[in-house]
Amino acid sequence: MNFEHLLQINDPENPLVAPLTRLELWQGMLHRVENPIPFLPGLEGCTILERSGNELLRELDFGPAVIQDRVTLTELHSVSFTIVPSEAHAGGRLTITIEDPVPSALLLLFAYEKKLLSKQSSST
User: Rounded to 5 degrees, what are φ and ψ at 24?
Assistant: First the structure.
């Protein structure tokens, strides 16, 4: 199952909202990587297991379920969260990309790829 949605960050036609720079938006995205608890309902804890270059391996504790994901950073452009498949989760990916269709109009594109758990039946 795949789907996408856009979130408008800056609105050049609304002078009441101070626009974010690409760097400020990127720093917010990095905050989501380092401390995802405010962004993921039900998340009780996050432990970073590995760091190397532009990748992290995290363990996300949702109480009854513990999920690992691999985070890939493309500086000032995108963050990908790839769930490591397990018995609890078939895996999937969320990629958040900074889009700038016109100067000063930043958007975030959320692209989801979700795998479905398949139930294996045994033959008798």
Answer: -65, -40
Contact present, 40 and 31 (Cβ < 8 Å): no
Beta bridge partners of 97: 78, 109
The pair phi, psi for residue 95, each rounded to 5°, is -120, 125
How far is 113 from 94, CA to CA, in rounded Å?
6
Q: What is the pLDDT of residues 71-115, one digit of tens each?
A: 999 999 999 999 999 887 889 999 999 999 887 789 999 999 987
CA distance 118 to 96: 27
What is the rounded end-to-end Cα distance, in angstroms, of the chain? 32
R_g (Cα) of the chain, nearest Å? 17
Q: What is the pTM of this model?
A: 0.87
Angle at alpha carbon of residue 1, lines to 64 and 46, rounded to 5°: 30
Are 76 and 98 spatial neighbours (Cβ–Cβ below 8 Å)? Answer: yes
